[in-house]
Amino acid sequence: MTTEQLLSLDQAPFDQPLEVQAILAEPWRQQLGKMGFGRGCRIVRLDETLQAQTVRVRGKNGEVVLSAGMGLQTIVHLDGDGRRIPLIDMEPGQTGHLEGTTASADFATALEQLGFHENDPIRLIRKLPPMDYLTLLEGQGLLRLSEGDAARILGRSGSHIRQFSLTAAECDFTVVQLLGCPWAIERLQRLGIWPDTRLRLLEVRSKRICRFSGDQQLMVTSQDGLHLHLPLEAGKQILVRRLTRPLLPRPSGSA
To answer: Which parts of the sequence belong to the Ferrous iron transporter FeoA-like domain (predicted)?
Structure first.
């Protein structure tokens, strides 16, 4: 990996691999150090404007999982009062039909690949907490995938085509397609996940979540499964460097 100049965490980009270089304020250094968060820790900063949850929904073809971003950009016309709201704003048990999306054609195509088309009925089953999908990637080793990224991987397990987020543990899974917008697909490719890649889900774990008080929050997730909500002032005291992960090659023999 190549490195760039140091940044304070509050100035760091979203969805990019970062490495903590220093925590300047002693109180924060001690408090975060007790959780294993300190120099050398590999993290990703999450977009604080998207503090929404991944959702599990049911359509006419069965249940699927949609990432928080997909839920925010999917508009549902509710049964009953007739409101049109983002899917993520529905309550468990509410029903409606798919009105459309506020995103690109790539997003609409991803929904269709999951079995959802305009005017299809939809029911929100539940909102999912932050989870880690501990995954064995053939030839690369162990990965931790978020619940949103696991939902973007469509593949074959046995005789069934399903999302990786819905596959059973310890079953062989071959990637068929990566769903979503180009930047989300590229993030998975940088992890070495392509069509024809073979994965094996080892375990699904709840993330360790720690929230600190403060009006403005920075959200980060670490490589070892720690999910932090930090006040802006703490972010200004944490210096990180951006790690540029090369795009891993597509497995040989892939189309």
So the answer is: 7-78, 85-157, 164-242
